[in-house]
Amino acid sequence: MLKTITRLMLGTLLLVVSASLTMAQVEIKPVAYKGWKNNLQISNGTVELIVTLDVGPRVMRYGFLGGENLFKEFAEQMGKSGESEWQARGGHRLWHAPEDLKRTYELDNSPINHEKLGSNGVRLIQAVEANTKLQKEMDITLEPSGSKVTVVHRLRNLGMWDVELAPWALTMMAQGGTEIIPIPPKIPHPQGLLPVSQIITWPYTDMSDARWRWGAKYITFSQDNNKGPNKIGMAHKLGWVAYLLKDNLFVKGFGYEEGRHYADSGSNFETFSNQDFLEIETLGPLQRIAPGKVIEHTEHWWLLKGISKDTSDSGIDNNIRPKIEALIK
Description:
The chain has 329 residues and is mainly β. Helices cover 12% and strands 40% of the residues. It has 4 helices and 21 strands. The strands form 3 sheets. The chain has a 10-stranded antiparallel beta sheet with strand order 6-7-8-9-21-17-16-11-14-13, with helices on one face. It starts with a helix and ends with a helix. The relative contact order is 0.14.
């Protein structure tokens, strides 16, 4: 009798483990998406990403399965390819900094190759850029459960000379949300004598713009469909920035390397907004790449839902930051 019970218990345990493993897995499959025939859907049953293979490399969608896309999409540019001019298009892309009208805006309007990375990831591979002789790659890996995505951005120099640049990862967020940027904790005077961060401005930066809120613990930046370009950069060392859209929260995690040189007067984080989108941008260190060599820059993404819309300092402290810190610990 005891042996029979033990066998039944073991059988039940195996069924539970098997069911758990079956539920927690990533599916990568070809799908059509908004006019493009060649795309990949990466999903674990909780969240999904859509990457198109007809242009790019681009991640065009990240959202809860069946839910709203947190990324901006330009409807009139969806499903198209082969344009003779660079297209904003939307989604998440890879550039190289510092920004230059010719080099940075190299076309990404042609089909790309891809490779599978294990059971839960894919590598997107662009053809060598005609003018720069650089090749862009993006590795996208989704965890079997939850919402965590790891994106490795890679620039490969296939030219004949060294080039100096930085990998630059840009995510266009959908309209109507608010970005949350943590700032270093306060140290009272006279103990706090040395700077802990820096804010970089552009010729069109307007700090009086009502889209900004300059709080004691957080800067918030809201997208407004009636307002034009505004931007800041930062030496950002706290490891994350978030974007709240309705009750969905997109979290982007990234690093800062002390002692390294960053483009744009020391920016490893930049944010830009206009009437169409808000962009969360991170940069790796500025580096000189020899022919045949590669540099990389990594981001981590998460999604949360059911988040309070209160973006005051106390609201973020009470309802948002603890949830983010539980993710990125």
